[in-house]
Amino acid sequence: MTEIHDSTGGAPEQIARLAEIMRRLRDPETGCAWDVAQDFASIAPYTIEEAYEVADAIERQAWDELPGELGDLLLQAVFHAQMASEAGMFDLADVARSVADKMVARHPHVFGDEDGNRTPGEQVQAWEAIKAAERAGRAEGGTLDGVALGLPALLRAAKLQKRAARVGFDWPETTQVLDKLREEAAELVEARETLSQAEVEEEMGDLLFTMANLARHLGIDPEAALRGANAKFTRRFAAIEAGLARSGRRPEESDLQEMDALWNEARAADKRAG
């Protein structure tokens, strides 16, 4: 049996150790009550959260934190595989085999006899063609079939639009997307003044959907762009708090005019640093 306290050995030994730890945690008699009580649905939000924490560490270039964050994400795969094994569905070996087989099948220019002298753009096209064939094999008849419902909404919007664009349902020019953006913004303003809250929400959704489409046309990952904006806002607001703290005050003891001035100072500092 794998020794759960053994921190030596390479990747195969440590992955086997992790799988054994999870098996022990899920043991209905001797395991952890919390781990035993979980199911696929209850663990799924943690899986999403851990993926974002990996992305956050990369965004911050926190390379010393990245092994731990990747380990947390790996644990999610092991957790799901253990629950599936208990239900007689599949196990961790099946998970690894599935992705390994997929990588071999999707890279015939590396593992097969296809031409390996492709540009990155040509390889993306070949990759998409292989994925389309895989979807056809799974009887996904609709163009948008298989775009996961559990994706963050902004990311899913971009993927839906990308799928539709493959079959020609797309604006040929970015300027047309900008025109649509102005139209949706005007409709949101009108809705706010004359329509119900539900209708305002619908118009807001249309505007965000169009923003995701604009990002795709500009070659920008909308999730990454929004993460960057969130990080910038956090950094600049922290500068506001630091500025107020120098006079022994907190934001609630200030006003918008003063905080806006501190914000502009932080923005100017960002520009100098950039």
TrEMBL record:
Gene Ontology biological process terms in this record: dATP catabolic process; dGTP catabolic process; dTTP catabolic process; dUTP catabolic process; response to stress; TTP catabolic process; UTP catabolic process
Catalytic activity: ATP + H2O = AMP + diphosphate + H(+)
EC number: 3.6.1.8
SUPFAM superfamilies: all-alpha NTP pyrophosphatases
Organism expressing this protein natively: Pseudoroseicyclus aestuarii
Any one GO MF annotation of this record: ATP diphosphatase activity
InterPro entries, per database record: MazG-like_dom (IPR004518), NTP-PPase_MazG-like_C (IPR048011), NTP-PPase_MazG-like_N (IPR048015), NTP_PyrPHydrolase_MazG (IPR011551)
Every NTP pyrophosphohydrolase MazG-like domain range: 38-111, 176-236
Similarity section: Belongs to the nucleoside triphosphate pyrophosphohydrolase family.
Name recorded for this polypeptide: Nucleoside triphosphate pyrophosphohydrolase
